[in-house]
Automatic annotation (TrEMBL):
Similarity annotation: Belongs to the CutC family.
Name under which the protein is recorded: PF03932 family protein CutC
Coiled-coil ranges from the UniProt annotation: none
Signal peptide interval: none
Species of the source: Chitinophaga hostae
Keywords of this entry: Cytoplasm
Entry's localization field: Cytoplasm
InterPro entries per UniProt: CutC-like, CutC-like_dom_sf
Top-rank taxon, per record: Bacteria
Annotated Pfam families: CutC (PF03932)
Length: 251
């Protein structure tokens, strides 16, 4: 199986770095600190102009859980229509019911609306009460892949379930591992899970060019996130992950 690398990009600049680094596909998001929300129309439009590789915007109207109101569902449908108009290759969705199951009815509406674009089911999968039941539901809905960390905080922690999901899927749907995927662990993940599709932001915080910095005000205040740091995908990290991943599959 070929090695496939998807980059979770939160800006047009990150999309460009992802393509230059050899990524196969981009999941375009906003607000990565909330797990990713739908980017603006302008961001999607300009990203589509600037990169040629597959572009899949996430369709998620807000952070938090994956139980959406009727109004939020209407927003999701409108965003899918816009992605189609802008020439995106696919979208990324995920809706759950209150009892932790895949909302098959609503998700089927979204996949039908997205056609002929592709559809990835995102890490809402990791919040379901039964991953194997969810797997079958998502296959029935018509998604082409599932992004998952194996129902743990990181793919490395969820490696055992990832392996089981690959076996259960039996080529009926792609299993894409994400969360905590880095050049340092990609070889181990491939060897222990059998997964060949991977998802990562490959990002680092670049120092702001601001000269004046008010020491009395914090606009972020999130532990581990620099106040004057700009998160961006790094071309060299994309290249390294791709190189190690391909070598591991060939070995």
């Amino acid at each position: 199986m070929p090695f496939t690398l998807e980059i979770c990009a939160a800006s047009v600049a990150s999309c460009i770095a992802a393509e230059q680094g050899g990524a196969n596909r981009i999941e375009l998001c906003d607000n990565l600190l909330e797990g990713g929300t739908t980017p603006s129309y302008a961001t999607i439009a300009l990203a589509r102009e600037k990169v040629k590789i597959d572009l899949y915007p996430i369709i998620r109207p807000r952070g938090g859980d994956f139980l959406y109101s009727d109004l939020e569902f209407e927003v999701m449908k409108k965003d899918i229509e816009l992605c189609k108009q802008l020439g995106c290759n696919g979208v990324v969705i995920g809706i759950l019911t209150a009892d932790g199951r895949v909302d098959k009815e609503r998700c089927k509406i979204l996949t039908s609306l997205a056609w002929p674009m592709g559809v990835t089911f995102h890490r809402a999968f990791d919040m379901t009460d039964n991953p194997f039941e969810a797997l079958e539901d998502i296959i029935a809905i018509g998604c082409e892949r599932i992004l998952t960390s194996g129902a743990r905080n990181t793919a490395l922690e969820g490696a055992s379930l990832l392996k089981d999901l690959v076996e259960r899927a039996n080529d009926r749907i792609a299993i894409m591992a994400g969360s905590g995927v880095r050049a340092a662990n990609i070889a181990q993940l491939i060897k222990t899970t059998g997964v060949t599709e991977y998802h990562t932001s490959a990002k680092a915080y670049e120092e702001s060019k601001m000269v004046y910095r008010n020491p009395n005000v914090s606009m972020g205040g999130i532990p581990g996130v620099p106040e004057y740091g700009i998160s961006a995908t790094q071309k060299k990290e994309v290249e390294l992950i791709r190189e190690i991943g391909e070598k591991t599959l060939l070995s």
